[in-house]
Amino acid sequence: MKAFISVTALAGAVLFTAGTMFAAEQTWNGQISDSLCGAKHESESIGEGNGKISDQECTVACVKGGSKYVLVSSGKVYQIANQAYADLAKHAGQAVKLTCEIKGNCITGSKIEMP
Question: What is the pTM of this model?
Fold first, then answer.
């Protein structure tokens, strides 16, 4: 009887874990930024003597310098797993609606739209 209860408990735990591991796609509003700047771009020092640059220019420059794309939504920064997704560069520094799967603080985007 104890073995049956243990097996049942184990099966329930596996099913619960599997359900949380495979999250359904969700749509989030936020801004495509970079891992160096996150939610706040301090871009005055990057400008070529012309003062402050835009969030888009800052994001592009930081990614070229080695940073990764991130999504900033409601003040929280989410790492983007699929960095090669072409629409990330197209929407760098812009407010977007991103359809993605979220696992912890890491997301995998599948569709980007302007809000």
Answer: 0.72
Handedness of CA 22, 25, 26, 30 (dihedral sign): positive
CATH architecture of the domain with residue range 23-113 = Beta Barrel (2.40)
Number of residues that this document lists for the chain: 115
Q: What is the pLDDT along the chain (115 residues), one digit of tens a residue?
A: 454 454 444 444 444 444 445 568 899 999 999 999 998 887 655 555 566 889 999 999 999 999 999 999 999 999 999 999 999 999 999 999 999 998 887 899 999 999 8
Strands 76-80 and 106-113: parallel
Domain spans in the chain, listed from the N-terminal domain onward: 23-113
